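Quick start: what a row looks like.
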Amino acid sequence: MIKIFDSELKIEPSRTNYKSNRQSVFMGSAFVFLNLLLMSCVGVYWTNTAVHQYLSGRPL
């Protein structure tokens, strides 16, 4: 079994990658926005007969 002492470990200070953090926030917010948009469109398609008839060609 290998024993590693704390004095032998060299721990570098953590650096936050702000560009990566900004990209994560952007991708997360884009995902939430597109998901809400999709749910709204499906809701309108199911509840509004005119939209359903316009897209499918058949009345509900």
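That is the whole record. The chain has a mean pLDDT of 83. Residues 19-56 form one domain.
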